[in-house]
Amino acid sequence: MARRSAVDLEPNIIWTLAVAVIVAVVVPYAVAFRRRVAHDRERKAEAAALGVDRPSAQYPYVDPSRCIGCGACVRACPEGDVLGVVGGTAVVVNGLRCVGHGRCEIVCPVGAIEVGLGDLKSRTDVPILDEALETSVPGLFVAGELGGLSLVRNAVRQGREVVEEVVRRLEACPGADDDVLDLAIVGAGPAGLSAGMTAASHDLRYVLLEREADLGGSILHYPRRKMVLTQPVELAPWGKLTQEEYSKEHLLDVFSSAVQDLGLRVRYSSPVGGIVREAAGFEIAVPGGTVRARFVLLALGRRGTPRKLGVPGEERSKVMYRLMDAESYKGQRVLVVGGGDSAVEAAIGLAQQSSNEVTLSYRRDKLVRIKKKNQDRVDTMIGSGRIRTLFPSQVREIGDGSVRLTAADDEPIELENDYVFVFAGGVPPFGLLKEAGVAFGGGGAGAS
Fold first, then answer.
1. What is the pTM of this model?
2. Rounded distance, CA 220 to CA 224, Å?
3. Are strands 319-320 and 206-209 parallel, antiparallel or unpaired?
4. pLDDT (tens digit, 9 = 90+) per residue, 290-336?
């Protein structure tokens, strides 16, 4: 009888344990999953309202027919909120934060995601390029961030690929005038240096034209000790960048060593004034004369000339458009204008100096297009009172010892001020491309 009772109790015990497991494991997971989905849906709606759900350059394209909604790509993204899972499918939530790491693509278990530039025909801020990175002008190529992709790794790869394409064309159609180079590379940043290394390894007749007195491209103008995201990358034939990040100074030292070791032909202080197509290739205007080459690679950055606010008083010497050394400013009342990574990094750097009073002004009501690392750091400093925010606000006038702004409701604000740092983006060097006949998307100026 006792044995029969025990047998009768076994199913009850099993069911009790099963229910306990469901309550302890499955229910919390289901609740957390529903909350995460609801949160991602809210983020997607907010991003759409702010206009940041549409990527500005590179972005992760998700194939909905293959995506299983596991969220691996969301967790892998180091920028935090580029992706989310809505309706069981991964979607781009904050496209402005995508910088092309490609980690989402790597971790996707079903190969449903790919980082790329997508269809550029509607993009008025990116030249139309084919698979070989050639523009609408035959023989004129673009590599690096000017073509829309960020990251040193991408620039290095594109610079190498363009030169390899040039080598194939030269082999198919050899012969040129003695005074015509095989290749002119404009810009000595990561893409240009990679192209120069590849050109040297193939014994091409080439030259690197750099407008600055030193190499590095956009990196040269970064603040001191700024960390540059590279990811491991091959600098063939010189060597490898093995770290995920390098300080600005370390990376420039690496580039300088490569130039010296390989004896790259770099002409510094040689801004390009124009590029004209001719029968033998191209004629490139530089100070003191011209350079002729069969092929041209534009490896320029997108920053170009700093964009100004266009307000009274902006011509004052207290207004800056670049912060090279935050440690030079102590005990100052500083206004930083902008909502991107450059503005936030400047505000953080200035707020770390003793006795500085730092205010961050941005035209939106929140920061939406900065890296996660910067978001975490600035949130901490805002929370501790080290950085004061004026969101949304716009500068109206810059005085000798003050700055006038207006808030969203046109409420006037006046701040006592010693320095103003403006990070409103830059005017890209599109004029050079359009004058050369390069087509852009969108049917705007320069479009074909």
1. 0.70
2. 10
3. unpaired
4. 999 999 999 987 776 788 999 999 999 999 998 988 889 999 999 99
Number of H helices, E strands in the chain: 10, 25
Contact between residue 121 and residue 159 where contact means Cβ atoms under 8 Å apart: no
Q: Which residues fall within 8 angstroms of residue 279, CB to CB, at 6 or more apart? A: none
Residue bearing tokens 């829309």? 148
Query: Following DSSP, what letter does each residue of 224-279 receive, concatenated?
Result: TT-EEE--SEEETTTEEE-SSEEEHHHHHHHHHHHHHHHT--EE-S----EEEEET
Instruction: State the burial class of residue 146 (Cβ atoms within 10 Å of its Cβ: 0-12, 13-18, 19+).
Output: buried
Looking only at the bridges linking them, the beta strands covering 419-422 and 333-337 are parallel
> How far is residue 332's CA from residue 341's CA, in Å, rounded to a whole number?
22
Residues 73-87 pLDDT 10s: 888 887 777 888 887
Q: How many CB atoms lie within 10 A of CB 2?
A: 6
Under 8 Å CB-to-CB from 66, ≥6 apart: which residues? 110, 111, 112
| Angle subtended at Cα 447 by Cα 443 and Cα 448, rounded to the nearest 5 degrees | 105
pLDDT at 391 over 90: yes
Under 8 Å between Cβ of 136 and 121: no
| Residues recorded for the chain | 448
Mean per-residue pLDDT of the chain:
84
Residue type, 158: Q
- Angle, helices 190-201 vs 248-262, to 10°: value is 20
